[in-house]
Structures are given as C-alpha cells and as structure tokens.
Amino acid sequence: MKMRIASVLLSVVLLSYLLAFSACDPGCNSEAPFTAYIHLAEGSLYTSVYGLDGTRPGKEIQIYSSYQVEMPLARNQDKTVLIFQSDTRKDTLSIQYVLTPKLQSTKCGFYMDADQYKIVEPTSFSSVELGNYPSPSQINVYIHD
User: Fold this and answer.
1) How far apart are CA 132 and CA 138, in angstroms?
2) Model pLDDT, residue 45
3) Which of 76, 72, 45 is nearest to 60 (CA)?
4) Model pTM score
5) Are 73 and 97 in contact (CB under 8 A)?
6) Which of 7, 51, 105, 116 is most deeply packed, by most CB within 10 A?
C-alpha cells in the first residue's frame, strides 16, 4: 500500500512539474512584428507618415531630423499602403507581400510569416529599392527621390 501511495505521489509531482514548465518558449516567433524600415533620400522634406487600412488612416508617425522611419506592416492583409506628407506634397508607397502560416513548434503553434516583398501600385515614388533584413518579417525600403 505504501508503494502505491508513493507511486501516485511521484506521478502527481511529475505531472505538476511538466505542467508548470511546459509554457510556450519565449523564443516563439508568433509575435514578431512585420516592420518596414524606410530610408528616405537625404534632403527629404516629409514631416509625417501614416498607413492606410482600407480607406481609414492609421496612426500618424512624425518624421523628425533622421531620414529613417520604422513603420508597421499590416498582418491582416497582403499589402500595406503608406502615405508620406510634407507641407507641400503627399506621396504614396505600397508594399505587397505573401503571408504564410508556419508551424513554430507543437508548443508554440502557428505564426504568420511574410516574404516575397515587392513595390506595387499605387506608388508615387519613381525610385524605390527593397533590401534584405535578417528577419523575414522585416524589410528595408530605400526611397531615392
């Protein structure tokens, strides 16, 4: 009888240990942000940029003295439209990408990944170049005009 009680107690302790330490690994990619690092041409006069979600403008981000701005890309659609503003003009940049669900692990589940980035219409800039970034969910965008 004592052996059975010890066996049950050991099982309970092991099960408790497994449940306590089986939480999702903090290294999961499920929350990796989709981000465009936009590098503006030197001398650019843009003062702010915002994204369009359908026809609704998103949060406006001020552009100060630096010529780089970090913009989130939409997770719920395969294209993000960004509007750059200055006192005298408004320009549009559209970035399209392919969203692919990927399995991180049985612990962490699925996450969305983005790749195959390209510049599409409507884009009013005449010279835009895409550059790689170490993470597939992030991209460098160089605007030359």
Assistant:
1) 8
2) 86
3) 72
4) 0.71
5) yes
6) 51
How far is Cα 109 from Cα 107, in angstroms, rounded to an integer? 6
Strand partners, 130: 141
70 CB-near residues (< 8 Å, 6+ apart)? 35, 36, 37, 38
| Spans of the chain below 70 pLDDT | 1-32, 53-57, 65
Question: Which residues in 9-145 belong to E strands, given as ranges?
Answer: 35-39, 48-53, 56-57, 61-62, 68-72, 79-85, 90-105, 109-120, 128-131, 138-143
Give the separation between CA 80 and CA 57, rounded to whole angstroms: 11
AA letter at 30: S
Whole-angstrom distance, CA of residue 76 vs CA of residue 53: 9
Per-residue pLDDT, 29:
57
pLDDT at 112: 80
The DSSP symbol for 100 reads E
